[in-house]
Design a protein that fits this description.
3 helices; START-like_dom_sf; COQ10_START; Alpha-D-Glucose-1,6-Bisphosphate, Chain A, domain 4; alpha+beta; SRPBCC family protein
């Protein structure tokens, strides 16, 4: 399974970064280029343990729905969301927050498995892993900007 790991330094306290990262409205802003919006479950505000959100977005010219659920939650250091239904066979996205002298290191670990077996693995190699990494990098940049402005 492909794994994408990112680390982002944010000049803001860990609690603020944690809350910004789980804010549905910030997520929508960070994926505006895909037309992404929350259409079911938690559709605005801060998502909590056990809650789901269904996203609708256009990727590769195709409108898709994806539902994820917050399955782990340790305020303000860690939460994880897992796909319940969507375009992957599975995924888990872990979000870690480490406070350092008023700043925060936000670490993402996104592990996913594509559908379609060998064809899916070829798509991972050819373009999907890079696409997903860029999507997460863009999202982290918006999280950083919002957290640093508050």
């Amino acid at each position: 399974m492909p794994v994408i790991e990112l680390s982002t330094l944010i000049d803001a306290p860990v609690e603020r970064c944690f809350d910004v990262a789980r804010d549905i409205d910030v997520h929508v802003a960070s994926t505006a280029h895909t037309g992404e919006r929350a259409i079911a479950g938690r559709t605005t505000g801060l998502i909590e343990l056990g809650e789901t959100v269904t996203w609708r977005a256009r990727h590769f010219g195709i409108w898709q729905n994806l539902t994820s659920k917050i399955t782990q939650f340790e305020y303000p250091n860690y939460f994880a969301d897992e796909m319940v239904n969507g375009a992957f066979k599975s995924f888990i996205h872990e979000h870690h927050f480490i406070g350092l002298n008023g700043q925060t290191v936000m670490k993402d670990r996104f592990e996913y498995e594509s559908l379609y077996g060998l064809l899916g693995r070829f798509a991972d190699w050819l373009f999907l892993r890079t696409y997903m990494a860029r999507l997460l990098e863009k999202r982290n940049e918006v999280i950083r900007e919002v957290a640093e402005c508050k």
